[in-house]
Amino acid sequence: MSQIQFNATLTNPLLCDSFTVERTPGTFGSGGWVPGVSVQVPAYGVVTPSTDKELRQVPEGDRPTEAMTFTTVTELFARETGQQGAADVLVWRTERYRVVSVARYPNFGYYRAIATRWGGQ
Fold it and tell me: The CATH number of the domain where 36 resides is what?
């Protein structure tokens, strides 16, 4: 019962923010990583500033000055768990954030990702 209510909250546009997931699949070729065509996936979720406790879960080299936590039913990929190594980029309120860490909660039907502000293309 709680899963249904929680999922309904995470997909309700009146209670959540909308954002876009930019996912770039690709393959490894003889010259290294070859990115494919970027796909944009619309998503809803709760977006909050990352807490100090959440940031301690991010590898030290990726610790940002600005990070947001995205809680959503849309599956997200970080660099280490992504498709062939590509991390998702989340576009929220015109800003771009690269996913650096994902906690999966399949029994409850949602994902919680920490994403750092990113100016890459």
Answer: 2.40.10
